[in-house]
Amino acid sequence: MGKETKGALSRRGFVRAAGVSLLGAAAAAGAFGLSGCSTAAAESGLAYETRGGCGDFSETIYTDAFPVKTRSIPVLDVESDIVRQGPVAFELRDIPETEIVRTEETDVLVIGCGLTGSVAALSASDDGTTKVMCIEKMDVGRGIFEGMGVTGGKKMDEAGNVIDKAEMMDRMRHAAYYRVPIDPIKLWGERSPEAADWLQEKFDEGEGQIETFFKAGSPNAHNFDVPQTEISFRSPQWSETTTKNAGGMGIYIVKDLANTLSKRANADLRYNTPAVQLVRSDEGRVTGCIAKDADGYFRINASKGVILATGGFDNNPAMLKAWCRAEDIAHCASWVPTLGTTGDGQLMGLAVGGQMDPLPAAIMNFDFGSPESFYSSNLGITSLVSSGIMVNEQGRRFASEGLPFQARSNAITAQRHYGESTWRVASTTQMGANAATIREKLQPFIDKGWAFEATSLDELASMMEVPADTLKETVERFNGFCDAKKDEDFNRPMEKATKIEGEKYYAIKHQSSILATVSGLVVDYNCHVLDYDNNVIEGLYAAGGASGGFFSGNYPRHIFGPSVGRCVTFGYVSGQNAAQGV
């Protein structure tokens, strides 16, 4: 019959397998279901499995050195109250046979039906004979994105955009400072053109009239220039609502793919059906999962394989605290469209011995965050704040405002208190002809105390509680750069910059925001999940945000669309491989 999670992971073993010290995991215990796990962190050798040459580890090394509470160990006291808690499906408990109401059979089981899962299920069922079951714990799959990064394909060829694959793969590894294995990036570099062409075929099969097209991006400043790798999506059926919310088109794409999947005779798509744990045989092969629906727990046997396509863990605050940098989550808005991404795939994979990306986890973080649990671009202030300047609580600029989103966000969190008091400062000059419209959309921020309007910089500085002389000096210096068309401090491109002057001055709270985590279970070239000895866990695949080995530390926002490119490519390859037994 095989064994469920219970045989593969003890409570202590979970912490060891996850590669997370109890300093971080203690907070995570509630969400992970590790009741009874000591938080004293007194054992040695538990941070990682101790291997030859690694020496002995002490779980209390930091607290021994700093017996008093100190900000030098920020992860100990960072408690972000703005990241929402989603429904965690994973269960680390012995589920008795008496609770399992039935057993079902399939060839390939796909867990998750967002972008990656719908692609994987379509790919696995393409032959018309492989029986595919795709289960999604929410009532709809997640989808929010704008473009897809690939290294070629028909749309690229038609646009005359030829990419040197070897160069692009090296750019990706360089962005991770080579802290990633070769295979995952090689898989994307070599097979994303094929996956992109295949995706257009699925759109042609669907009802959404979706078309992919090459999208030339704006040149990046500060030597961030890379080859143009992005293709985007359009459909005559999409209303103007898709242009009002960045990434809104992703929802339509996922629905279209899921609709196509639901019409296939050899595919079975189910919503509101969470997977709670994997089943691994005594021989070590993953043979299926225990899932749950309205009738209770049931077993799904998957003869050819299981694909984890559950996304990241951005809606699991405990996992964010355990895996991410403290500054990345301390003061950030949540730009997450659904609550389903709670790390279920990572946790289920870890429970059967899977290897997780090393710490710190990579996240996709943008700026333009507000002190609110969910950031909405509908507040419509982007056109105002993007042309102003960023200042910290001292009233000084700290980075070029022309950096890519990710870099700006990191610069914000590098400020005092992880960017809790950083601002965008602008004036009516930046508003231009749209002053009335922008002012109206700025009002919700003013009402909540997140933005200020003043008739002078002295008045504005008083509202911001920053030194007035410093703020005025900062603005005067920036205005001089506008005249000279040269930023002597941070090398911001100044060709289109305008002076901060006019009838009114504005300051807007400007913090980081999280869209997604992009770290997961390390996979090989065929999307097999690897254990900590880099051996394949037979029968188990991971793709998209649930997979790892692709990013390290940061998401490379200056490279166009690698997250969606990975989702589509790995979903396509994992589905194909599972169906074919590769």
TrEMBL record:
Transmembrane spans: none
Residue stretches in coiled coil: none
Cofactor(s), names only, from the UniProt record: FAD
Gene Ontology BP annotations: steroid metabolic process
Pfam families listed in its UniProt record: FAD_binding_2
Xref: SUPFAM superfamilies: FAD/NAD(P)-binding domain, Succinate dehydrogenase/fumarate reductase flavoprotein, catalytic domain
Signal peptide interval: 1-40
Database matches in InterPro entries: FAD-dep_OxRdtase_2_FAD-bd, FAD-oxidoreductase_2, FAD/NAD-bd_sf, Succ_DH/fumarate_Rdtase_cat_sf, TAT_signal
Molecular function via GO: steroid dehydrogenase activity, acting on the CH-CH group of donors
Domain FAD-dependent oxidoreductase 2 FAD-binding span(s) in chain numbering: 107-556
Keywords: FAD, Flavoprotein, Oxidoreductase, Signal
Protein name: FAD-binding protein
